[in-house]
Amino acid sequence: MSKDATRETEYKNVCDHPRIMIAAPGSGSGKTLITCAVLRILDRRGIKVASFKCGPDYIDPMFHKQVLGIPSRNLDMFLSGEDGMIETLKRGTVGSDIAVIEGVMGFFDGMSMEASDNSSYDIARRTGTPVILVVSCKGMGRSIIPFIKGFTDYQYEKCIKGIILNDTSKTVYESLKEDIYKETGAKVLGFLPKLKDLEIGSRHLGLMQPEEIPEILKTIDRVADALLESLDVKAILEIAKEAAKTCNSEGNLNNFASCTNQVNLGNDIDDSKSIYHSRHSIRIGIARDEAFSFYYEDNLELLQNLGAELVFFSPMRDKEIPDVSRLILGGGYPELYAKALSENESIKESIRQAISNKMPVLAECGGFLYLNRTLETPEKDSFKMVGIFDGDCHMQDKLTHFGYVNVRATVDTPYLRFGEIVRGHEFHYYDTSDNGDTCEVLKPNGKRKWGGYKVKENVFSGFAHLYYPSNIEFIKRFIER
User: Fold this and answer.
1) How would residue 199 be classed by pLDDT, with cut points 50, 70 and 90?
2) Rounded CA separation 13/21 (Å)
3) Residue 474: phi, psi to the nearest 5?
4) DSSP classification of residue 73
5) From CA 78, how far away is CA 89, in angstroms rounded?
6) Backbone angles phi, psi at 104, to 5 degrees
7) What 8-state DSSP symbol labels residue 356?
């Protein structure tokens, strides 16, 4: 069998797996809460669910994991390319009965105002996933019909198969559901009334983390119970089965065969057959606690496929780093825990000593802040951090940088060679007095760029959340150094 034929067969196998996407016309429509409620409803019925999140967001997958107890993965065209996205979908659905994908932003909102590339719609059509659109009816009655019709008519490939009405009443739901179906062809599957005292807190990076919200599962159960009073679960399962019919269309197979920006994740289901599998036995310390929690599941799996054992530790509580030969300090909210991080002198000294002894270290965003000299809280209190770099970190009143980036080395660094690129995403209100200049950070459209990244000893550190599979050599050098 030819390589292209093999890829088409693998794609069809992915497409045969039942799945839905829960998307919305815009942010703030309630899609995260309703996605979690649907996950909870299916899980209660003994249905094995795999969950995914469109785009580069870290926090929504944490809510999925809180409900299901298993990792949630990101589907992102820019970071992984179409092949890589399909590989993530394939790997993530193993052992499940159905996959539930949460959309990102508004349904057609993509990487730019000019096109819908990498939007929920784009990912739905490329993967042949039927969509259930969550629509907030707040402030609207019958006007909701032309509003929904605008979305169903605008899509070139008809992905929207169902509607869930949010912030409405039983009377409005029962009055309009048949007319919505007649006008749009999308069945109204249920509604969620406005629930009192139901609010998930947010901050400058979006939603609060689920571990910070008291009794979060009770909140999700409350939403699930209210939604279940009207939700047509059987219809949802039938829509999910339509994924195979949608995805096996010739157009989608051609999309797959001719995709660009291909990135091989090296995450084959059978790790022994992966070309990136390694016999190395490397222990990597991963900072993970309330202050450091932003990690792509694909990154962690790739490290394991390359032979690494991941050892999680807390810079807030542990007295020293674990018995490891490498460190990764991920993103998160160190500014909210600056006092506790500052007062843990013993682990800061342990990290300084490891770096002095040439230990390979990757630090991004929150991890980069932690390695600097001082970190200022949102309340303007300043605390001493590890002090590997001489920068002082402070919060801005607006996003410093936001969106996808290509990080290109302007000099040889320990892991990224001159001219090489690794892809990533930036979303931060913080800045430092010295962001470094070993790399150029470029917007994908090439219209903007800025300097960044600090290197000291074997430390490579900067603001972007890097997607390791976009440059396998980058992360292999980190492991093999």
Assistant:
1) low
2) 18
3) -55, -50
4) E
5) 15
6) -130, 135
7) H
Instruction: Compute the distance between CA of residue 63 and CA of residue 71 in angstroms, rounded to an integer.
Output: 10
Phi, psi of 316 (to 5 degrees): -80, -35
Residue 11 pLDDT exceeds 80: no
DSSP secondary structure letters along 152-195: HHH-SS--EEEEEEES--HHHHHHHHHHHHHHHS-EEEEEEPPP
Choosing from 36, 365, 393, 439, the catalytic residue is 365
Q: Which pLDDT tens digit goes with each residue over 239-290?
A: 999 985 544 333 333 332 332 233 333 333 233 333 344 455 799 999 999 9
Range name among 10-14, 68-72, 313-317 with the lowest pLDDT average: 10-14
Alpha-carbon gap, residue 121 to 258, rounded angstroms: 19
Give mean pLDDT, residues 166-188. 95
Residue 282 host element (H or E): strand 282-287
* Mean pLDDT on 203-210: 51
- For the question of residue 259 being annotated catalytic, the response is no
Please answer whether residues 119 and 25 qualify as being in contact, where contact means their C-beta atoms are separated by less than 8 angstroms.
no
Residue type, 440: E
